Amino acid sequence: MGLLDRIxxxxxxxxxAMVSSAEDPEKILEQSIIDMQEDMVQLRQAVAQSMAALKRxxxxxxxxxxxxxxxxxxxxxxxxxxxxxxxxEALNRKKGYADTAGSLKASVDQQAGQVDTLxxxxxxxxxxxxxxxxxxxMLKARMQSxxxxxxxxxxxxxxxxxxxxxxxxxxxxxxxxxxxxxxxxAELSSDGLEQQFAQLEASSGVDDELAALKMKMLESSSQExxxxxxxxxxxxxxxxxxxxxxxxxLRQELDQDK
Length: 258
Prior knowledge:
Blueprint (H helix, E strand, L loop, with lengths): L2 H20 L2 H56 L3 H75 L2 H64 L8 H25 L1
Helix pairs in contact: 2-3
């Protein structure tokens, strides 16, 4: 393949690619229908002209047949009058019109066949145009749907789904953290309240026991008081010292437990 042939092929392929990319299916189909409608107009004109020509030929055929019949009647009239020469001349005229009628009859039959063919083609073309219009509307709807789908896909392609997903996950994690903090706070506040009540109940028990102990000591002291002799101060002091020592030991033990 020569250089010029290769250049020609490249140019031709580029031109075809440009034409293909520039083609709008809707416009192409619309133009095709317009061309078909123009053909239908021309075909209707051809049918009308053929029908008019057929009409004229039929009229000429009828006239030729009428003249042929008329000259035959005149020939018979001439024979009745005994004029054979005139009858012969009338038959010659009749033959001329009969020959013309025969030729016209063949032409009329041929023209009638052409008219029928043109009518059938016209009906077929009308059907194709109707079918083309329906198909054009269907393809137009499909093209619009395809363009809408393409636009939607382009829009979805521009959306950063991974970033959006990461954002949602991050927000969900924050919500879960807030819920955990709220639960812990509620639990802590509940534990503090229970602890306060426990301390209150414990202190109430100690206070009650302390009051009972005081009451017991009062009862014990009131029962033992008459047995003590007023003059025995040394004994009282020794007993008081023993009680003080026991109390001090009890305080030290309590301080160590704390």
